[in-house]
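Students often ask why inverse folding is considered easier than folding. One informal answer: many sequences map to the same fold, so there is more than one right answer. In these notes we will look at a single instance of the problem. The structure comes first.
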């Protein structure tokens, strides 16, 4: 219901930069208070049906203070920093990736990081810049803690970052990957169900791990969302415990009472149906696993019936198409040599990925594949899931589903989901799946902002919003090439030369 209302508002708020008419009312006075000005720029904002040319933009204290038609701007030529000449450029909201994992370095275990402090530190310093380099001024880490967020935010510059608490069922996915007993300390928001099968480990109090208690703790820790999981396993694991519907319904109820949306890790027909039945807000992942007998790209009637419910309920849907392509890229010899990778990660880290030590995750996958050509075997195995996820994304895009741009970077301890670059690749996967540049632009800006309840702060170019903005050479509603060579990334009113954010300059 709430989602339906949002969609109608989308239409009604087309007035958008009609704010221009009123803008003089919002202008800030003294020149001394102005910290950024962009003149004669074309504004492209997702709530407005048309680009607005020749606008003067004033940013004050990190927020958009005024948007004025240049011809009517009486405030020009003030003291202070010279304005940015926006002629020929497009000003758009900074992009939002609603699915990242920022705790580690892609492809490196904690032990490996300790063994290679030199380039590990350089990588940690570069990763936030790489997200910014590709235009991502806001990130949502779907599985984090206040401690990890504090560490991430020591970097400068660093995208605005928010986090969800991970409400995993005890010993279920993804806790199963952490050794016991550390997993209980590493997952402070784990869920315990009444009458669970196994005895509880020492120190885990069921009262502190009810849906209500977990949501209350996340909320007071500063989380803006709840992430939960329905995953029986993959890659040889297939009997992980999954939550009961009543557990996730209680989690959704508690989260909504606290103002937090709920995301469900769900990549199978069973899991997405579970998410639709329990009323979660966002399904994280494309529909990879369903009718195993389908041909690549075929949407069977049972899959279509799930997708039709996705459209009808307006549940948020993150295709995360690049995840499986990233697995294939582990077996692509050209991947580490691609010069674009050197724009987002330090050269010595890339070199290390090519060593036997750095290839550990690739080799772990290869161990379960025919030795003669593991890459070809993997591609054969992934052809149906990849084809289904792409076809489902195109099907949903044509029917006005609520697609949300999230990359799941990195989706595994893999080097083939690099920060920032992974989003650029994901954008192209969406194009290939039949999503329009305009839909991608909306999904990565206002769509994500609304779904994560951040739309009062970010997601559009409007007076009062945080000045997270991009200056582009093309209109991103016309072409995604607009994101290729960003001119300036503006983060909280601070203009960053995009080229200077790249690695290995
Ligand atoms: Zn994820």
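Output (designed amino acids):
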């Amino acid at each position: 219901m709430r989602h339906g209302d949002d969609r109608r508002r989308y239409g009604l708020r087309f007035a958008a930069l009609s704010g221009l008419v009123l803008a003089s009312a919002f202008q800030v006075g003294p020149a001394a208070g102005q910290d950024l000005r962009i003149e004669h720029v074309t504004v492209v904002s997702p709530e407005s049906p048309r680009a607005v040319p020749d606008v003067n933009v004033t940013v004050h204290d990190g927020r958009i203070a005024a948007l004025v038609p240049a011809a009517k701007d009486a405030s020009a030529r003030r003291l202070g920093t010279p304005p940015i000449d926006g002629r020929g450029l497009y000003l758009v909201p900074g992009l939002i990736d609603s699915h990242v994992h920022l705790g580690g370095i892609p492809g490196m275990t904690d032990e490996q990081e300790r063994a290679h402090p030199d380039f590990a530190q350089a990588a940690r310093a570069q990763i936030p810049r790489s997200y910014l380099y590709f235009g991502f001024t806001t990130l949502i880490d779907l599985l984090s803690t206040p401690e990890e967020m504090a560490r991430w935010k020591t970097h400068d510059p660093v995208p605005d970052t928010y986090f969800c608490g991970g409400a995993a069922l005890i010993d279920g996915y993804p806790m199963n990957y952490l050794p016991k007993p550390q997993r209980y300390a590493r997952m402070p928001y784990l869920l315990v169900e009444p009458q669970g099968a196994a005895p509880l480990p020492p120190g885990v109090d069921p009262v502190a791990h009810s849906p209500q208690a977990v949501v209350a703790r996340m909320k007071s820790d500063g989380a803006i969302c709840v992430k939960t999981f329905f995953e029986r396993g993959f890659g040889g694991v297939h009997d992980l415990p999954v939550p009961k519907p009543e557990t996730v319904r209680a989690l959704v109820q508690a989260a909504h009472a606290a103002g937090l949306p709920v995301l469900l890790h769900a990549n199978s027909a069973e899991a997405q149906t579970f998410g639709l039945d329990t009323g979660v807000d966002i399904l994280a992942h494309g529909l990879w696993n369903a009718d195993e007998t389908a041909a690549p790209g075929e949407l069977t009637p049972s899959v279509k019936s799930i997708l039709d419910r996705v459209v009808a309920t307006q549940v948020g849907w993150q295709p995360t198409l690049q995840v499986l392509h990233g697995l294939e890229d582990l077996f692509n010899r050209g991947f580490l040599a691609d010069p674009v990778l050197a724009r987002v990660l330090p050269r010595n880290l890339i070199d290390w990925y090519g060593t036997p030590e750095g290839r550990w995750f690739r080799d772990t996958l290869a161990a379960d594949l025919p030795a003669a050509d593991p890459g070809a075997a993997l591609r054969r195995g992934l052809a149906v899931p990849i084809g289904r996820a792409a076809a489902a994304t195109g099907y949903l895009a044509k029917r006005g589903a609520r697609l949300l741009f999230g990359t799941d970077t990195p989706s595994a301890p893999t080097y083939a989901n690099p920060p920032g670059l992974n989003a650029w690749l994901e954008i192209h996967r969406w194009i290939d799946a039949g999503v329009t540049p305009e839909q991608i632009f909306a999904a990565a800006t206002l769509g994500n902002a609304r779904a994560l309840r951040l739309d009062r702060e970010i997601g559009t170019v409007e007076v009062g919003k945080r000045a997270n903005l991009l200056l582009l050479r093309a209109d991103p509603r016309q072409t995604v090439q607009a994101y290729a060579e960003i001119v300036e990334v503006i983060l909280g009113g601070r203009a960053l030369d995009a080229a200077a954010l790249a690695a290995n300059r």
